[in-house]
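Next up, sample data:
>
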Amino acid sequence: MNVENFVVSLGQRWRVCALALCLLASMSLAAQATTFAVLHQPALPTAKAKRAALLGLTRVGERLVAVGERGIVLLSDDSGVSWRQASVPVSVSLTAVQFVDAEQGWAVGHLGVVLHTEDGGETWHKQLDGERAAALAVQAAERNGNQPGGASNLAQARQMLDDGPDKPFLDLYFSDRLHGYVVGAYNQIYRTDDGGRSWQPWMQHVDNPQGLNLYGIRASGNDLLLVGERGLLLRSTDAGHSFQALKSPYDGSFFGLLGTRGGALIAYGLRGNAWWSDDRGGSWRHLDTGIESTLASAIELRDDRLLLVSQSGELLFSHDQGRSFDKRQSRSGGTVAAVQQAADGSLASVGLSGVAADQDPRTSGKP
């Protein structure tokens, strides 16, 4: 796959497109096509890290962890007031991050990178990259060559190997320290049952014959759900062994999914579109968000309110488990990619202009 096609294919998701452009600005075409040196170059410490393009944000205990371009990982232990840079072994852009407890966490990103930390995010090591992921896909296809579709699967895996490590992971979900999934472009999905020490290609377990991009993965009750481009919705009811397509109410891209503590689901994406389900994705009702901007992030606050945030920083709060949303004042600080409620109840966000913390009670996560 050439660079132009790579960028065009990822252009359907604003934040991935922006990050692809960041990569192209920092790497020569020759380097990207041949050595992919950023897979082996540690992230450089920089005083400007807080202003870098950041795409992922999570909270673990009192700590906020943000990830973004050039392998930057930032940590805050004071609800986003101050940040410091962690040690990371790669310089690729990171797209999402999750922790299962105060010590164990994972981050994913471009060039098929999966990172792991065992010390709360202070230091990270690489568990997987696109070169290894492609090789694993070929090995799995060769083992299953006699199964239906085996020849086609093998051809696709070999093409993936020939392309090189150009495909990003865009989201992840771990249920505990051992079991997790990473998902990304072109139906890429890998599973681990040993905390990332080994990975299994899981593409053949997903009902996605067109190979559409997978943008989000979340658990809801005993179900595991995937969302993606062109309205793709998939659900697993057998602990992730297989993912079956759900009837979608929408043909635009879903960029994320929120599963609430009460069992409701909210799938959200382009042009302010959001859809609500209270029957595990069996049926969906369109939500009137009143905005045109792409929805970038969704969280459940500790007072049981729900919050949707657009990439333009518009805040939508729900007091009825997602059945309706009220618009609040927009957040300042530019484009928003992800939002979290900090330990003190305020909201912290990240975007293309870096990190932002909001102590204003009119727009914060506080009631």
Summary: The longest strand covers residues 54-60. The chain has one domain: 3-358. The first helix runs from residue 3 to 10. The helical segments are 3-10, 14-26, 29-33, 130-143, 150-163.
